[in-house]
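REQUEST FORM: STRUCTURE PREDICTION
Request ID: SP-0412
Submitted by: Lab K.M.
Chain count: 1
Length (residues): 230
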Amino acid sequence: MHWTVQFIDRSAARRSAPSASHRPHGGRPARSAGGRHRLARGRTTMSPPQPHTEFAPPGRPGAPAPASLRESLSALRGYPTPAWKAAIACVLAMVLSPPALVTAVTFLIDPVAEDFGWSHSQTLTIFNIPTVAAPFVLPLAGRLVDRWGARVVAVPGTALYALSTAAVALVGANGVVLMAVLLVSTALGYTSILGVVYKVVSEWFPHHRGLGYSLLIGATSSLAGAALSP
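STATUS: Completed
RESULT:
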């Protein structure tokens, strides 16, 4: 009789205990609050990624980007003084850049062809090949500026650009050498001026990149070319 009562008690205990399929956490026994707390402290939790937010124009923290031309021009006053010094340096560099000087080539074709005894088409080819080929160095210029900085590229590059441009007058009537010197000079000009100016505008005027490119690069080179043409 005593054995029968013990058997019934054990059977009831097994029926009342939760099965493995009904246990939380895939069959593992539930942890206490303290155990869960210790387990959470041992793990590194990652917060969900936050959406990218728009940066406000300088001088107006938290404000939306200027929508009108008047607001955009008013926001220019928020840029620091070094930004405007960099803009002046960009203007001076663009005045003597290859895009500004290329407009004067048209007026040099006939005098150069007459002095060296070349045909008009030969002289035009000597000047046009460097003008067409040199802009392909801009990806390399951008890579150098991103890696070493604008100043490191601009200072020695501008000095080499000036020396190679001055060397054009010493070449003489050798068309192949003249074309090679023009190619080196134009490539150095694009690298040390165009590549640097793009970087300066994007870094110093992040909210006015389009306006900076159009004024400091497009308008400056066009006006300088018109002024330098005879």
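NOTES: Residues 1-9, 20-27, 32-63 have pLDDT under 50 and may be disordered.
Reviewed by: T.R.
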